[in-house]
What we know:
The structure holds two protein chains of two kinds. By secondary structure, chain A is an all-beta fold. Chain A has strands spanning 5-7, 10-13, 19-24, 31-38, 42-50, 53-57, 64-68, 74-78, 87-94, 105-106, 110-114.
Amino acid sequence: DSGVTQTPKHLITATGQRVTLRCSPRSGDLSVYWYQQSLDQGLQFLIQYYNGEERAKGNILERFSAQQFPDLHSELNLSSLELGDSALYFCASSAFSAGVGDTQYFGPGTRLTVL
Amino acid sequence: AQRVTQPEKLLSVFKGAPVELKCNYSYSGSPELFWYVQYSRQRLQLLLRHISRESIKGFTADLNKGETSFHLKKPFAQEEDSAMYYCALRGPSGSARQLTFGSGTQLTVLP
């Protein structure tokens, strides 16, 4: 499967902990986007990386950080977790950072539950 | 600020009936508009985008800049169309490229 992959599928942890979510983009895609989907906020953009560099930032908390590695996979780090961080975290990838028609392809998501 | 509004959280229609999922947006410029669909237990996938002016699975959507709307329509709904539908907006080339999503509409097509 050459689509976007995310690991783990599910993650259950306690408040105050730190977790790392991983995303592998589609083969050849240079951009990775992270989105958070929660019941009260809907789907919200967090951050974008393009070819290893941060490109755009959305409503990402200071407790959250991300990076994109030379092999283009990305990790989203969530620290000092709170109950309200429980959500589905999606990763998407696209071929380019800019340009009309650039399509974002989504991964299956990681469901984070903070107890 | 850019914003996408989908006024209906839930929408039920009978099989064979027409369906329209509403989407309104606010953006000071010329955005790109998209419809994404999420079938049960599957990932979000692109259904269509306004620049392509295409019809996918019988769905069409026309961008109405005067009314700032991008409603999704299908003349005859099928049971397999039952899914969550999200309208999304993106700024034009050269601006921020992230998607701004609406809150989604859960469509149920009844037999």
